[in-house]
Amino acid sequence: MKKKFYVSTPIYYVNDVPHIGHTCTTVATDIIARYQKLLGKDVFSLTGTDEHGAKVAQAAEEKGLSPQKFCDQISENFREIWSKLNINYDYFIRTTNPKHKKIVQEIIQKIYKNGDIYRGKYEGLYCVGCEKFITENELTNDCCPLHPNEKIQKQSEENYFFKLSKYAPLLIKAIEDPKNKYHYQISPQSKREEVLSKLKRGVDDLSISRANVPWGIPIPWDKSQTIYVWVDALINYYSALKINQKEEFWPANLHFLAKDILWFHAVIWEAMLISAKIPLPKEVFVHSFYMIDGQKMSKSLGNVISPQELLKRYGVDGTRYLIASSFPYDSDSDVGWKRFTEKYNADLANGIGNLVARVAKLCEKADFKTQKLSGSYFQSGKTKEYRKALDEYRFNEALAFVWEKISQADKYIDNKKPWTLRGKELEKVLQPLVKEIQEISFLIKPFLPEASEKIEKQFSGKIKSEKPLFPRIE
Ligand SMILES: [Zn+2]
After folding, report:
1. Whole-number Å distance between alpha carbons of 140 and 163
2. pLDDT tens digit string along 83-136?
3. For 131-156, what is each residue's pLDDT tens digit?
4. CB within 8 Å of 166: residues ≥ 6 apart
5. What is the Å distance from ligand 1's center to 168 Cα?
6. Whole-model pTM above 0.85?
7. Which residues are identified as catalytic?
8. What does the angle CA 106 – CA 111 – CA 113 come to, to the nearest 5 degrees?
């Protein structure tokens, strides 16, 4: 039987339009899913939209739409852009799906039954922008640091609380001890340390319901309260499988996300699952952010990069390549239009595109026929370094491995000067070169699926010149 691999992106909050941050997480997850398929695994890959909460209701009202209609539209925007980016997900979950709502209520009910939910009074500061409570210490100029233009609200209400504090010692053990029955991995290492030290400083219980947010899922035993949007959202990873009758994929192999939502995914989610007696995901991987020309990306600075704009300039594979090669692994990664264009021209137009065109032209003149690439190539020792890089989500290193092959092939051509050769001599020089192109084409599959398919086609049977894969951008 095939090994299973279940990977998820976070579900994106619908009050926002897709930007390069969402694009980064989603493209990276798609690369992982495609790579796991190449390894021969049975893969389930999930993405979706998070559609409840006060902020969504507010945004809908501003547009004069019902919250549901508003969610339908924004959710469609996400689906459309992912399809343009060749994201091959297996399911797109929406938290307004009635089946999801029912499963959320069942799990909350289970946690309640286990004695981990109690009624209490909450008094504190709430940022609607973040949809979370924040402490006085976290404020900058009396505002949430992420939402300097939004008013912080003082809230005092009766809520239901989840006994998160009770689970902190258990979670510390689970993270630290690989033999612990609840063990799960948080990577990279720096993020694991961050979570552990915060857990060790002590954790408060978590308010998991709201009294005045009607756009949400009702608490099953008290319809006057709705479930906190984050609690509702986290359950999507589990409900998506139930909805699709794919429970055999649980527990998830990998939740892939950005660092601003680390705590929810590496602590709150696991505590909820332990309480509900559901097995824990195996790994939570957290990437950093993009900086745009040295600055934080923000609407007020007007430097937000959209996937639409990336696609327009660089095409599908160009965008995927630029995202993967600048992937913010465990520190922020600085990008910008100028550097993107330079990298596109250097690595795609002049790099792989030029090599493929060069070799095709030589083969065309030589009346050359190809042999198929051996199926064992990918699993062989030759690709070990590449696979290790991808096993650790080090996209840049995997790409460096491929681009080293490209540069070696270019050198080989310069040395052998095949344009001076004919007949058998020429064939002898071209044979390994064509094999090299086939290997390169195989290795770029997870990253550049379209280009890979084109090259594969071009280098099977009689080889001919084709249109440039990546036209230069001036
Ligand atoms: Zn905020």
Report:
1. 29
2. 999 999 999 999 999 999 999 999 999 999 999 999 999 888 888 888 888 888
3. 888 888 888 888 888 888 888 888 88
4. 116
5. 25
6. yes
7. 19, 22, 127, 130, 144, 147, 296, 299
8. 90
